[in-house]
Amino acid sequence: MTAASAYVGIPFRLFGRDRDGIDCYGLVRLVLAEQYGVTIPDMWYRTADDITEGFAHERSQSYWQPVAPKQALPGDVVVFRVARWPIHCGIMVTPSTFLHAMPGNTHSVIESMRSALWQRRILGMYRHEEIAP
Question: How do residues 54-70 score in pLDDT, each as one tens digit?
């Protein structure tokens, strides 16, 4: 995804869904819509349990296909565990980097998936059926 830099620096805002402010899922929705023409359902949540249930439900939908890490491509969604919960996601930029937004960062960033912080937290990678490899 050569356009990833266009998404770096968007302010973090919990429940944000546009360029005025985004959370991790809002960023995934924004990138998939703008770069790939793919619309995914919105998820609203109040607690870690809500987020866990939402991610589990969304990943179980037939339009998401699991992707082996070595086959991951730009535009694939990566799901991470944070504090034991599968509550964070980002968009693959390269085989080793991803774009994401989260509390603690003031804005969206690209980071290495191979860093000690993220590598051990990866739960899976998924490709939407409308995005051809």
Answer: 666 666 667 788 899 99
Higher pLDDT, 60 or 17: 17
Copy the structure tokens of residue 20.
């005025």
Asked if 107 and 13 touch (Cβ cutoff 8 Å), the reply is no
Which position has the higher pLDDT, 35 or 131?
Answer: 35
Parallel/antiparallel/unpaired status of strands 77-82 and 85-94: antiparallel
Question: DSSP of 40-105, one letter per residue?
Answer: ------SSHHHHHHHHHHHHHSTTEEEE-GGG--TT-EEEEEETTEEEEEEEEEETTEEEE--TTS
17 Cβ partners below 8 Å, 6+ apart? 26, 29, 30, 42
Give the span between the Cα atoms of 126 and 58, in whole angstroms. Answer: 11
